[in-house]
TrEMBL record:
Residue ranges of coiled coil: none
Membrane topology: Multi-pass membrane protein
PANTHER family (UniProt xref): CYTOCHROME BD2 SUBUNIT II
UniProt protein name: Cytochrome d ubiquinol oxidase subunit II
Record lineage: Bacteria, Pseudomonadati, Bacteroidota, Sphingobacteriia, Sphingobacteriales
Annotated keywords: Cell membrane, Membrane, Transmembrane, Transmembrane helix
Length: 336
């Protein structure tokens, strides 16, 4: 049953990156939109993500619950040593959701709308940025469980150039996913062309920041290239991601929404696979050379079995309901 739990953990992280990433990316696109087009972009973003934006955080909640229940030692270590970026990320989620709601449903339209817009845009950037920082910190070997001072224990474990580079890469990926998704939801050819340009811009940014991640990893002695290209699965996955990128660029002007979404989702999925395969089942690498393994630090056997059954049975209710939610609002949008 442990493999069922791990599969759900990986799936929750994957779906949060894809669906939640596209959600955050909508705000990132708005942040990097000219003042002339901001209002138009804002209306498009609201129409596309408004009905389902909160549902995307379900995947993050599932991942946290799995770690808390199934892997308490791993959850504890992350909560203690990464509490600063975790709090910033959670504050970003709350601030973003609050601003998104008030800027559309506030009974009084006044200058506060400008404040709500800024909060939404910047929190949409900050949240995935710190999500990337947290992910990078777990594998960078910077977490020092033997630290004797506050900075070494709770700041330097995540505040380093490698984590910052991964944070910027995550932001670029989110913006790219959002632009690709919105292309298929636009009403006019002008809007389609505008979001195609945004998708290209964010994809270029992802390539540049991805290269920066490799450069900084090399300078800081993190064997990132070895992790990815040192095994057949990683090599195949990153090659497939590169191939899908080439195909996407060749077909993006044809505006085939379904094909573009499949290619973008596949590309991001292959990148995630290439980065996680080499470490499995090790989820955290520590500064002293030790690691925390999902197999070695799992909870009691009965707890894992109960958690696995809860996830399996819960998915029978959650997944159809989520599909119906998305389907309903897409159908409603087409009617109007």
């Amino acid at each position: 049953m442990i493999y069922v739990v791990i599969a759900f953990l990986w799936a929750a992280i994957w779906l949060y990156l894809l669906l939640g990433g596209a959600d955050f990316g909508a705000g990132i696109l708005e942040l990097f939109t000219s003042d002339k087009n901001k209002s138009k972009t804002r209306k498009t973003v609201y129409r596309v993500i408004g009905p389902v934006w909160e549902a995307n955080h379900m995947w993050l909640i599932i991942a946290i619950v799995i770690l808390f229940v199934g892997f308490p030692k791993i959850y504890t270590l992350m909560s203690v040593h990464m509490h600063i970026p975790l709090v910033i990320m959670l504050v970003g989620i709350i601030a973003r959701g609050t601003a998104f709601t008030f800027r559309h449903y506030d009974a009084v339209v006044d200058d506060m709308q400008v404040v709500y817009n800024k909060i939404f845009q910047y929190s949409s950037f900050i949240t995935p940025f710190f999500l990337g920082i947290i992910a990078a910190s777990t594998v960078s070997g910077a977490i020092d469980t033997e630290a004797k001072d506050f900075l070494s224990a709770y700041v330097y474990s995540w505040l380093n150039w490698f984590s910052i580079a991964v944070g910027l890469f995550t932001v670029s990926i989110c913006g790219f996913l959002a632009a690709i998704f919105i292309i298929g939801e636009t009403d006019t050819e002008e809007d389609k062309r505008r979001f195609i340009q945004k998708a290209k811009f964010m994809n270029i940014a992802a390539v540049i920041t991805g290269g920066l991640v490799f450069i900084i990893a090399y300078l800081e002695g993190i064997p990132l290239a070895q992790w990815i290209f040192g095994n057949p699965i990683g090599t195949i996955a990153i090659s497939a991601a590169t191939l899908s990128l080439i195909i996407l660029w060749k077909t993006i002007d044809k505006k085939n929404a379904v094909q573009l979404r499949i290619l973008a989702g596949f590309q991001v999925s292959m990148i995630l696979l290439s980065l996680t395969y080499e470490h499995f089942p090790n989820i955290i690498l520590l500064k002293n050379g030790e690691y925390l393994s999902l197999m070695e630090y799992q909870g009691e056997e009965k707890t894992i079995a109960a958690l696995a059954w809860a996830l399996l049975l819960g998915s029978l209710f959650i997944l159809p309901a989520l599909y119906y939610l998305i389907y309903s609002f897409q159908k409603k949008g087409k009617v109007h």
